[in-house]
Amino acid sequence: MYPLLVKFDVFRKQPARKKSASNYIYRNVQNDDIMGNAYARAIKPDVMPGPDCVPTFDPMLGFESRKERVMIATVEEMESAKLPLEDRDYCAHKLLKYRACRADTFPFVYKCHHEKHDYLTCEYEDYVLRMKEFERERRLRERQKQIEKQGA
């Protein structure tokens, strides 16, 4: 069976209405429905962790030594810089450096490209780490379910 292709408007994120324009893409609707987290949580709610779930397993399970992540920027620094809540993560100290550099070299903000690169790299690495933790939690839940199924 061939996947269903639907034309989507990139900017509006909805099905396209016009037939010819440069801002349309074709999306594979069949794979988007199957590969989504909502679909997986509906099929396996006991295995798939939710977006706000707390880890249920020991963080040292399977590791000999593992460092705990520590916030470098303090709450007072983030409040004084008026960082929005969505930016108060493990990369907040790099964002503060980037914003300070932009303020110091204002008309020439291109001079802060190193700070911007450091911040974006930190955000990407944080994202990858959170994905790995999510996948670890899901696999450990599946493993626990298989062990309980074999034991019963």
From TrEMBL:
Transmembrane segments: none annotated. It holds the Pfam family NDUF_B7. GO terms for cellular component: mitochondrial inner membrane; mitochondrial intermembrane space. It is a peripheral membrane protein. The keyword Lipid biosynthesis does not apply. InterPro entries: NDUB7. Keywords: Disulfide bond, Electron transport, Membrane, Mitochondrion, Mitochondrion inner membrane, Respiratory chain, Transport. Belongs to the complex I NDUFB7 subunit family. PANTHER family: NADH DEHYDROGENASE [UBIQUINONE] 1 BETA SUBCOMPLEX SUBUNIT 7 (PTHR20900:SF0), NADH:UBIQUINONE OXIDOREDUCTASE B18-LIKE SUBUNIT (PTHR20900). Accessory subunit of the mitochondrial membrane respiratory chain NADH dehydrogenase (Complex I), that is believed not to be involved in catalysis. Complex I functions in the transfer of electrons from NADH to the respiratory chain. The immediate electron acceptor for the enzyme is believed to be ubiquinone. This is NADH dehydrogenase [ubiquinone] 1 beta subcomplex subunit 7. The gene is LOC105223176.
